[in-house]
Amino acid sequence: MAEGVRRIFPFSLIAGPFGLVYGATAAESGIDDVPAILASMAIVAGASQIALVELIDEGASWIVAVATALVINLRFSLYSASLSPDFRRFSPGWRYGLGYLLTDQTAVLSIVEYEQRSDPEYQRWFTLGAGLWFVLPWWGGTAAGVLLGGDIPDNWQIGFAVPLMFTALLVPTVVGRPKVAAAIAGAAVAVGTTWLPDGVNIMAGAAAGITVGTILSERADPEEAAA
Whole-structure pTM over 0.85, yes or no? Predict the structure, then answer.
């Protein structure tokens, strides 16, 4: 558990400001405080939560809002596919509990760690430590953002937290030509298709990245593909 906390710690420092962004957005949209805070505890996915709030604020129907959030969160199916071989060895209680705590940050760190350590007990406690240490500041930041709302000074520039977090998550994992090419292809498609409905460009970018990475990995030398 301690190793999971140690590895997630740099990301947890940004989780609070990220939660603050969502909380402030929810407060300014007029959503009641309790539902706004409970959403962070039920959904645990910042990008989709912010999209939900913005769509609700724009008067979108609940069907459109929920569908958009689901599309944005489809990326978790990719994490599930990577983690499922190891999660199958866990008891149902561990599987469901850790699944609830699974964020982008915890999932990526767990995938990388599981490749190095195959002991199920170690894996369970690693993910638990990482998951808890990330969601706690996220919930705290959410509550602070909801309660402060419009009182947050503009010069705080808390919006930096979102791109900074995902950049910090991406860079250490992109090693080897197939992964670099996959990252470039995915980013290019995601940026080039921003005209698509909310969240669809992200999934298009993910699909492009996976396709390019898979093709190049199959063509690369075994050592290079595993790098």
Answer: no
